Amino acid sequence: MVKNNVSIRDIAEKSGVSVATVSRVINNRGKYSKETRDRVLKVIREFDYTPNMTAKALRIRRQQAIGVILPEVTNEYFAAITLKIQEQLFDLGYITMIFNTSYNNEYAVRYSEMIKAQNVSGIICIYDRQTDINKFPEDIPIVCIGYDPKTKVKRKNFARVYVDVAHASWVVTNALIAKGCRKILYMSNWLKKEEGVSGRFLGFKKAMEENGLEIDKRLLIDVDTTGASSAYEAVTRLIKSGIEFDGVACNSDQAATGVIFALNAHNINVPRDVKVIGFDNTAVSKLFMPAISSVEVRPELQSKYAVECLMAMINGEKLDRHEYVVSAEVILRGTT
Amino acid sequence: MVKNNVSIRDIAEKSGVSVATVSRVINNRGKYSKETRDRVLKVIREFDYTPNMTAKALRIRRQQAIGVILPEVTNEYFAAITLKIQEQLFDLGYITMIFNTSYNNEYAVRYSEMIKAQNVSGIICIYDRQTDINKFPEDIPIVCIGYDPKTKVKRKNFARVYVDVAHASWVVTNALIAKGCRKILYMSNWLKKEEGVSGRFLGFKKAMEENGLEIDKRLLIDVDTTGASSAYEAVTRLIKSGIEFDGVACNSDQAATGVIFALNAHNINVPRDVKVIGFDNTAVSKLFMPAISSVEVRPELQSKYAVECLMAMINGEKLDRHEYVVSAEVILRGTT
DNA sequence: CTGAAAGCGCTAACAA
DNA sequence: TTGTTAGCGCTTTCAG
Fold first, then answer.
1. Residue A137 and residue B53: Cβ atoms within 8 Å?
2. What's the longest Cα–Cα distance across chain A?
3. Closest CA to B250 of B230, B273, B268
4. Most buried residue, A215, A269, B93, B251, by CB count within 10 Å?
5. pLDDT tens across the length of chain A (336 residues)
6. Which CATH class is domain A62-162+298-328?
7. Among candidates B323, B277, B324, B326, which has minimal Cα distance to B299?
8. All structural domains of chain A with their residue ranges
């Protein structure tokens, strides 16, 4: 059982050296003989001493802690990133503090106060299109995951990592076309925005054009893709109104399940009659039978980049670049 | 943009009072006139001052922070609890630090060091049958979620909240029986343990006995229920060997999907021929069509209890009880 | 009602 | 190579 009361002074006394020396030993700062080192280390072990990080933080004006701001941990993709971040940070001796914004910028603003008060060393923000990162303390390094590369950011100490969605979408569309699809249903919950800026639609458009295929406006569906029901209804409507399609590119696996159920309900076979691809390669895509084709966005790689460049900024290293893009991979399974 | 440099001394100077008074005002400690209060508050706002929590933590020997130890945030149920905990703690002015054990007690032990070093005010441990809570600093209040009530714990400052799984299982079994099931398949990934201690099997057994039904040993299935495939294979084997059953009680929704797919593959209709109930009421149960009947274990209520009694312990209040049990609710949907 | 001052545990500049 | 000491920003006792 860990005790909570022995301080650096106790260790200094017990090992017959000064606190400065103990501090040096603890932090591997050199300037001590091997003998002192061993003696101090022995006493530390003996008394089961753990340096008080609060005191250290106060002194060096930095907590060995990182704030992770994300919409909701309950989102599988965000959770996967958060898990990996925490693991990596732990190995580096950092604590992970989490803050769920629930897609509400008000929250994010209040969090930023707390984060400042905590003297965290850095922030990782999993972007939700709502959080205004300009509200965060300017001297704290911050990296955004999923932050739209087109958004201009003025602050120093900033980097972003994001998925090359345009390319992923291009690959998805090409995969569908290669499987014989000609009339592809494009489903998104951000269609209006995407048509303007987002890469996902651009990749789709490019692939269609390159293959000499027309985009049927009626097959551009803008629904809530965080669940299955809206997708189910949308597809049902389409079927009933006799609009034909032979491939579906969804921006979530949940939507893909809705699409598949709707097709099945009308005796349209997947993948024979219609091929379907989801997004994020979540658990449900593997749970399904046939397993749903999807897009792997490599949360562990995103976390890796994020932590690496955050640490670089914290350690005052010059970043060779401020944008890390991870390319997604299309996983073809039973629904194509 | 939040600045990071103004201290309590600055506020004291600017408002012409001592730091002691500023401190009193900040913490609503009384002993100041309304005028001083207003003046101080005005200056605080003006300078956008946020008290340095690290300094405070050092002084009062407690961080306004709670450590949440859990197997993995990627588990939907754990994530739901974590999300709610973080929200509540934030409202109470506490930071949430997370630690994923990955079901590995080694990790948990190393976390306990870090937690001690951080002077957290309390710990919430979402139990995974692996973590040894005796390894945690003895003076820090701790509440375990899901901790088996039969496990003896000696430490002070300890409370647990758990689901009455026995009752939930009893209700599930009764629901299946009420729907006409007689040969019920009981699926678990902890069968051996359950037959000994766990309440889940007890509830099943009780309901069967009360209804004069025999438990068919061949219908007690012990497989990995964290995914769908093991359940799929187990059910397929059962069908092939001609062992009949008309109801399935799973301990996860993932397993339930595997069961349903296996049945469908053999043209066995759900719910007509076989009724299926999952567990945890996760997203996939609602995604499915027909939606999968499941058991709602109220993560938000579990979080609420956990945070409440943790706060009580932190504030030195005497707990009226050390066990909080939340009763689960069976949600009947399309598969029954 | 208000202020002076000690000190939480640590780091780092400076002295030896 | 080692020690002394100031001070990080805050709370709290004690004196007024």
1. no
2. 88
3. B230
4. B251
5. 444 579 999 999 999 999 999 999 999 998 899 999 999 999 999 999 999 999 999 999 999 999 999 999 999 999 999 999 999 999 999 999 999 999 998 898 899 989 999 999 999 999 877 778 888 888 899 999 997 777 788 888 899 999 999 999 999 999 999 999 999 999 998 877 766 556 889 999 999 999 999 999 999 999 999 999 999 999 999 999 999 999 999 999 999 999 999 999 999 999 999 999 999 999 999 999 999 999 999 999 999 999 999 999 999 888 889 999 999 999 999 999
6. alpha beta
7. B326
8. 8-51, 62-162+298-328, 166-296
Report if CB A33 to strand D is under 7 Å. yes
Nearest to A118 among B54, B98, B258 (CB): B54
Nearest CA to CA, how far is B54 from chain A (Å)? 6
A52 touches strand D (CB under 7 A): no
Q: What torsion, rounded to 10 degrees, do the Cα atoms B80, B85, B86, B91 define?
A: 130
Q: Do domains B8-51 and B166-296 have the same CATH topology?
A: no
Specify the pTM: 0.94
**CA-based torsion, A139, A143, A146, A150: positive or negative:** positive
A118 → closest Cβ in B73, B95, B136: B95
Distance from CA of B319 to the nearest CA of A (A): 23
Block residue for tokens 């130890």:
B69
Backbone angles phi, psi at B180, to 5 degrees: 105, 0
Helices (H), chain B: 8-15, 19-26, 34-46, 53-60, 76-91, 105-117, 165-178, 191-196, 199-210, 229-240, 253-265, 283-287, 299-314
Sheet architecture: strand order including B184-188: B220-222, B184-188, B247-249, B275-277
C-beta atoms surrounding A229 within 10 Å: 18
Which one of 1.10.260.40, 1.10.238.10, 3.30.390.10, 3.90.1530.10 gives the CATH number of domain B8-51? 1.10.260.40
Write out the DSSP string of B224-236.
--SSSHHHHHHHH
List chain D nucleotides near protein: any atom < 7 Å from a Cβ: 1-5, 7-13
Which chain A residues touch B1 with a CB distance below 8 Å?
134-138
